From TrEMBL:
All copies of domain ATPase AAA-3, residue ranges: 37-167
Signal peptide, first to last residue: none
Entry superkingdom: Bacteria
GO terms assigned for molecular function: ATP binding; ATP hydrolysis activity
Name under which the protein is recorded: ATPase
Pfam family, one: AAA_3
Organism: Caldisericum exile (strain DSM 21853 / NBRC 104410 / AZM16c01)
Domain annotation ChlI/MoxR AAA lid: ranges: 229-298
Phylogenetic lineage: Bacteria, Pseudomonadati, Caldisericota/Cryosericota group, Caldisericota, Caldisericia
Length: 306
């Protein structure tokens, strides 16, 4: 099976800017197709924001970027009610959250009160201001970046907010040959130079088609068994939530669609396990540094349907 041709247009466009990261690009598109949210958790300077912006620029939708800082206020994200002298009425001026794709750069630079301003929008697709509810555009996706907590000036994201991200990904350093090529040629294109290659209607069609992807009962049981083992593991303090399990199913269906299939296979589940689980599970104190190995062992020990 080949990548869905509509998705391939996006991938090819992004690869004009991001080199040697096709697998990460494909995984990054999963929340977009599954109507979820994405967070990149990695060290500075590996292209997290550039990748997020490249995705946003590749689709003909409304986009915005929020640079999170220590003095950012919730109203800087949601918007604010102001008095209009001409009409003698109060009116609501929408903030940057009112976009189809919202890039939240260095989300853990802002204090928890500001971080939580995203919560309602991420889960309900609405925001409340002074007892009024405002609907966010459809589709709506947050693509956030986060620097590891050991870097100065950062605030750990609360578990309730992390659980609202469908996937967490690490971009990582390029392969040596790719990085040498980048050093030789420099950056010829940046995210701002990209033009949209997919319309809103085409995106909505893909989203709709992904919902119809078949998950056979044996594969669904395979997913559930992985979920159950996260709750029983002696290395994990808090396993995957029901919301996380629902996102797991949505994610594998979206990935199958991206790969040009209308059915899910066990390899899709294996591919998505770590991105879905890693940021949601709460590990016991001494197991934090072994997150990847613990998840890999859970998947390895779970019987694959034939």
């Amino acid at each position: 099976m080949e990548i869905d041709p509509r998705i391939k247009k996006i991938v090819d466009n992004i690869e004009k800017v991001i080199l040697g990261k096709r697998e990460i690009i494909l995984l990054s598109l999963v929340p977009l197709i599954a109507e979820g949210h994405l967070i990149y958790i990695d060290v500075p300077g590996v292209g997290k924001t550039t990748l997020g912006e490249s995705i946003a620029r590749s689709i003909d939708v409304a986009t915005s970027r929020i640079q999170f800082t220590a003095d950012l206020l919730p109203t800087d994200i949601i918007g604010i009610t102001v008095f209009n002298k001409e009409t003698s009425q109060f009116e609501f001026r929408k903030g940057p959250i009112f976009a189809n794709i919202v890039i939240g750069d260095e989300i853990n630079r802002a204090p928890p009160k500001t971080q939580s301003a995203l919560l309602e929008g991420m889960s309900e697709r609405t925001v409340s201001v002074e007892n009024k509810r405002y609907s966010l555009p459809n589709p709506f996706i947050v693509i956030a970046t986060e620097n590891p907590v050991e870097f100065a000036g950062t605030y750990p994201l609360p578990e309730s907010e992390l659980d609202r991200f469908m996937l967490s990904l690490e971009v990582g350093y390029p392969e040596p040959t790719t990085e040498i090529k980048i050093l030789q040629n420099g950056k010829k294109l940046e995210a701002k130079d990209l033009n949209p290659v997919l319309s809103l209607n085409e995106l909505m069609d893909i989203i709709s088609e992904a919902k119809e992807v078949l998950v056979e009962e044996s594969v669904l049981n395979y997913i559930y068994e992985i979920v159950r083992k996260t709750r029983m593991s002696k290395f994990i303090r808090l396993g995957l939530s029901t919301r996380g399990a629902i996102d797991f199913v949505k994610a594998v269906k979206a990935f199958a669609k991206i790969m040009g299939r209308n059915f899910v296979i066990p390899e899709d589940v294996k591919k998505l396990a770590k991105p879905v689980l890693k940021h949601r599970l709460i590990f016991k104190e001494y197991e934090e540094k072994f997150k990847d190995e613990i998840i890999e062992n859970i998947v390895f020990e779970t019987q694959v349907p034939i």
